[in-house]
Structure formats: structure tokens, C-alpha cells
Design goal:
The chain has 343 residues and is an alpha/beta fold. It has a single domain (3-333), classed as NADP-dependent oxidoreductase domain (TIM Barrel), CATH 3.20.20. 39% of the residues lie in helices and 15% in strands. It contains 13 helices and ten strands. The protein has helices at residues 27-31, 38-51, 66-74, 103-117, 136-148, 162-175, 198-205, 239-243, 250-267, 271-280, 295-302, 311-321, 329-333, and strands spanning 3-5, 12-14, 16-19, 55-57, 83-88, 122-127, 152-158, 180-186, 208-212, 285-290. The strands form two sheets. An eight-stranded parallel beta barrel has the order 3-4-5-6-7-8-9-10, surrounded by six helices. The protein has a two-stranded antiparallel sheet with strand order 1-2. Helix 3 links the parallel strand 4 (55-57) and strand 5 (83-88). It starts with a strand and ends in a 10-residue tail after the last helix. 43% of the residues are buried.
Length: 343
């Protein structure tokens, strides 16, 4: 397993991480992802560690905290061998302070995550989304205190826009506080908006991409083909899941799948393996979060590392997944002598 430095920090993470959204299966939304219990989760962790995958990502909102509990049970007795990342800020209760990035909520969220996971510290703690109602100074001051207290080792964000992230980085620099080193962002062959502004920012400011949903919200599993019905087991059968995920036109989906199939014939690799390997060759990407309902899916996704697509194959996938840029990016791209593409 290859390891990469996480953003501008000295912390090394494996290029693949295991997401725990499939753990527990609490509630309608997360039940569609999976319902892996402690015993099977322990087996998945075993397989990961054998392959050198040591990083496991969760969130307090996953199955209302149950996913963190399952993860804690699965890593019990080997905490020193794993990297734990988790997230908070989504609503987790009915109270007015049960949401967001206030000092009140973040402090309580970290304490609860530590208890559920059964650990004294979180290696990477990320804000699950931007909170426009809480001053960034309050957010970062709180996170800095938690880092200094030893409860968090590194901090990151998720689903931020460019100005959200840059405003926060500026505040950290101004006050000498701990700095975001990771941005957990949606990025796939079916959703390349990350490249427009967030990738250049990441390269300039030393923020590593922790990629979520590399298979385009379960669309690049290899089971979707033109004119064919959805497979029996697919989260895309849930209107709730589809509504809350990235929207992708059939035209783009099948154009990309056709290109992947072409590359698959040349490489002998599966659709998911090719989609993940493509991401691992993109600038700023530190680690790609893979998901698995079972050991078979996990082992298939682990096959995305240890080889590389050729430049010609990357170009084929780039061309198939390209979409028109929105303003001001199409205007900037017209002047590459002063706005070069990220490398």
C-alpha cells in the first residue's frame, strides 16, 4: 500500500481508506448503504490491515452514531495500528444547538465520538459541512484547543467551497491556530467540479483531498449499462438516497462507462478499480475512501492499487468525463498562460 503525506502536514496516510457508512445500517438512508455489524466489520478491518490499509473514516451522523460504535468494536485492541478519522456538524438531535460548528456543539461532538469509538484521540477530525452562522474564529479556536488537549491530532473539512476554506485558512494563519490539512470532497469521473477551484486551492495551500464517493454514488460499480435495469441490490433504487446524492445525467454516465469498458479491455481491471485508479493519479489527492458491504467488494476495491493507468488511458477517461465549465472557470481556462491547469 502506498502512503502519501496529508496536505501540508507531516502525517502519512494510505492512498485507500475504508469508509464506515455501511456500518450498522440504522435508519432508512443508511440501511440502503449497508448494515455491517461488529463481527463482519472486524473481518473487514482484518482484510484492510493485511493489505496495508490502515485508515478508517466515519461520522457521528452515520446511523446516528452507531457506525462509530461498530468501528470502535472492530478496532478494539489494535487502536495503535489504525488511523481513525471522523466528522461532525450535521444535525444529530432536536435541540437548537444539536447542529453546526459552535464551540458548544463541536466540543460535545468530539467527546461523544471518542466515547463511541472507544479511544482517547481522533487522528483526523473533519467538519462535515460549513456553518455560515458560526464565526470561523470560534470554530478554529475550539478546534485548536481540542488539538492542544490531545483529543484531536489533525483537522480537516468536508464539502466546503473555495472561499469557505480560504477564509478559514487565513484565520488560522492570523491567530497561529491549527490549520486544516484535509478536505474530504466529492470527486469522481462523474463529478469533476473539485478540479475547478478546490484543487488549485489545495495545491497552493497544502490541503490534501480525502475523496468520498469515488464511484459516483454507486454508479460506477460495473453493474449499470445502457438499456439495463438497476441491479437487485443498489442504493440507487432508493429515491431518498438518489435525491440526497450527486445528480448525474444518463448521457454522461454511459459515456463514462463506455470509456471505462474500453480501458478495462486493455487492462483486465474492473470498472471500480479503473475509476479509483484514475483518481489516485489526480493532483492533490491524498487518499480515496472506498466502501464495501462485504469482503468480496472490499477485496475488489483493494485491487485499485499497485498499478497505474497509462497516459493514453487517462486521456480517454478525461475526454469522456469532461463537462462544460461554469463561469468564471471557462473564462480562466481560456488564458492558460497565466491560469495553468493543476499538475
Amino acid at each position: 500500500m502506498e502512503f502519501r503525506t496529508l496536505g501540508g502536514s507531516g502525517f502519512k496516510v494510505p492512498v485507500l481508506s475504508l469508509g464506515t457508512g455501511t456500518f450498522a445500517g440504522g435508519g432508512e438512508f443508511f440501511k440502503e448503504w449497508g448494515s455491517t455489524g461488529p463481527a463482519e466489520a472486524t473481518r473487514l478491518v482484518d482484510v484492510c490491515l493485511e493489505a496495508g490499509l490502515t485508515m478508517f473514516d466515519s461520522a457521528d451522523v452515520y446511523s446516528a452514531g452507531q457506525a462509530e460504535e461498530v468501528l470502535g468494536a472492530a478496532i478494539k485492541g489494535r487502536r495503535d495500528k489504525v488511523i481513525v478519522s471522523t466528522k461532525a456538524t450535521f444535525r444529530h438531535g432536536e435541540g437548537p444547538n444539536d447542529v453546526g460548528s459552535s464551540r458548544f456543539n463541536l466540543t460535545r461532538a468530539v467527546e461523544k465520538s471518542l466515547k463511541r469509538i472507544g479511544t482517547d484521540y481522533i487522528d483526523l477530525f473533519q467538519l462535515h459541512g460549513f456553518d455560515a452562522l458560526t464565526p470561523v474564529e470560534e470554530v478554529l479556536g475550539t478546534l485548536d484547543e481540542l488539538v492542544r488537549a490531545g483529543k484531536i491530532r489533525y483537522i480537516g473539512v468536508s464539502n466546503f467551497s473555495g472561499w469557505h476554506l480560504m477564509k478559514s485558512l487565513s484565520a488560522s494563519e492570523r491567530h497561529g491556530w491549527s490549520r486544516y490539512v484535509a478536505h474530504q470532497a466529492y470527486y469522481s469521473l462523474l463529478g469533476r467540479e473539485y478540479e475547478w477551484e478546490l484543487m488549485p486551492l489545495a495545491l497552493d495551500q497544502g490541503v490534501g483531498a480525502v475523496v468520498w464517493s469515488p464511484l459516483g454514488w454507486s454508479r460506477l460499480t460495473g453493474k449499470l449499462r445502457r438499456g439495463q435495469p438497476l441491479p437487485e441490490t443498489s442504493r440507487l433504487k432508493s429515491a431518498l438516497v438518489v435525491k440526497n446524492g450527486p445528480q448525474v445525467t444518463d448521457e454522461l454516465l454511459f459515456k463514462v462507462v463506455d470509456a471505462i469498458d474500453e480501458v478495462a479491455k486493455e487492462t483486465g481491471k474492473t470498472v471500480p478499480q479503473i475509476a479509483i485508479n484514475w483518481l489516485l493519479q489526480r493532483p492533490s489527492v491524498a487518499t480515496v475512501i472506498i466502501g464495501a458491504r462485504n469482503e468480496e467488494q472490499l477485496r475488489q476495491n483493494l485491487g485499485a492499487v499497485g498499478w497505474n493507468l497509462t497516459p493514453a488511458q487517462v486521456a480517454t477517461l478525461d475526454a469522456a468525463s469532461a463537462v462544460p465549465l461554469t463561469y468564471p472557470y471557462w473564462h480562466q481556462r481560456a488564458f492558460e498562460e497565466r491560469n495553468p491547469k493543476p499538475v
